[in-house]
Amino acid sequence: MPMKLEVGDQVELKKQHPCGNHHFEILRTGADFRIKCLKCEKQVWIERPELERRIKKITSKEE
Question: What's phi and psi for 45, nearest 5 deg?
Fold first, then answer.
């Protein structure tokens, strides 16, 4: 069963981005995800299974 991930959620990944950051924000969901690095603001497309394997911690969007 897929993880419950929504647009605006912030995730911490096991593998860091080349800029050295582990924290990303989810911009688009579906079979493929678009995530944005919170340090350098680079956007990356990643498939759902790959993202779910790499997630260390999920922080829901603040309301």
Answer: -95, 135
pTM of the prediction? 0.86
Give how many domains the chain has, as a whole number: 1
Over residues 3-46, the pLDDT tens digits come to 899 999 999 999 999 999 999 999 999 999 999 999 999 999 99
26 within domain boundaries: yes
Does 43 fall in a domain? Answer: yes
The structure tokens listed for 23 are 């924290």
The answer to whether 37 and 24 have CB atoms below 8 angstroms apart is yes
Domain of residue 42, residue span: 10-59
